[in-house]
Amino acid sequence: MHKENIDNLRKLFIGLDKKVNVEGKGRLIPINFDNAATTPPFKRVMKMILETSEYYGSIARGDGKKSQYCSDLYENSRKYILEYFNAPEEIYTAIFVGNTTDGLNKLSNILIEDKNDIVITTRMEHHSNDLPWRNKCNLKHVEVDKDGRVIVEEIEMLLDKYQERVKYVTVTGASNVTGYVNDIRRIARAAHKYGAKIIVDGAQLIPHKKISMIQEDINENIDFLVFSGHKVYAPFGSGVIIGLREIFNEKEPSSKGGGTVQIVLDDRQLWLDTPERNEAGTPNLFGAVSIAEALREMDKIGFKTIESNEKELLSYLIKELKQFEKVILYGDNENINDRLGILVFNIDGMTYEEVGEALANIRGIGVREGGFCAHPYTRRILGIADSDLQRYMSEVGTPGLVRVSLGAYNSKKEANIFLDTIEYICRRYAKY
């Protein structure tokens, strides 16, 4: 990406040039290479929140003019989100939740009614798309290959084996550890062949690629999609489930109370239709507005621009890091066509904690280190077998890696500062 373009893009975000104290260095502009965890918000998003606060009122339960304004804004945000993901209102609904974790827990509580129901997931998953399903159903885990990619053939084999007993296939759209993008269309075709529904954890995918719920081949449609606002350049505390309207209307809500019922009698209640039945309590207006506005901004930038910038930086970082003798890169770093702007590494002679601390303390560079809430997957990337885990932990500690995750606004200048800092760390701190 041309420097002029990235400079213009960076102007859309708040706080990128806000200096922080770095011990012994004074105040420096930090570098955020931890976008897989949290992204900085767009200026337009924060402006919209401020504008909305001037008309602050209750949602759907007040007749005052501010309440009417807020109710309309809330529902228009929902409508835009459905349009953004090509999700027709007659088929899908959008339910506002706290974040992806909240949304996946809500789905597991709503959808699973029989512990014998089979749900297929993978060993690539974030804990939020693994733990909520455990002990609620008959959960089957599909393995990853030596590079860390999901073995889709195993999903197809399990579907063929159990057929109509499989109710859901729940899979991450893209890994938060390696950045691999899964073949969602192929998985959807396989699931629908046997009458199962597909659930996509879109937390990592949505900030980097435009996703459509409806495909030309209806067998490739996505049934449920979940994502977080704070990974798409909006603030914390908001997320969305996009899912099949008919199924939500058939199921009892997971949270019950105000706003979910048409009427409550002494011994029973009549639920409202979705999405109201699935949004108990006073809705998060600012969350809904911020997500819709963030998606609008991403659309304006264009995903061709976002993807090309991130892929260019990823390729550059991988190429340069390969030159450092002490840097150990993980995953497939030759074929990166199916990867987002994420890479993981360690430095020989240092723990991942030490590397993360050094990057922050030397130059204010933010990365993520550890298991990234994907411990089974991280162990596989490191090549640590279950039988060796206890010995590994006693000798080395908890398995982990250092992760660099890129956002739409990251620049080659930042990449070069990072590389210079890594070179210094290898020379100064790594033990022989």
TrEMBL record:
Q: Which UniProt keywords apply?
A: Aminotransferase, Pyridoxal phosphate, Transferase
The superkingdom listed in its UniProt entry is: Bacteria
Q: Which SUPFAM superfamilies match?
A: PLP-dependent transferases (SSF53383)
Catalytic activity of the protein: (sulfur carrier)-H + L-cysteine = (sulfur carrier)-SH + L-alanine
Q: Which cofactor does it need?
A: pyridoxal 5'-phosphate
What residues does the Aminotransferase class V domain cover?
31-416
Molecular function per GO: transaminase activity
Of which family is this protein a member? Belongs to the class-V pyridoxal-phosphate-dependent aminotransferase family. Csd subfamily.
For this entry, the protein name equals Aminotransferase class V-fold PLP-dependent enzyme
Q: Which organism is it from?
A: Clostridium saudiense
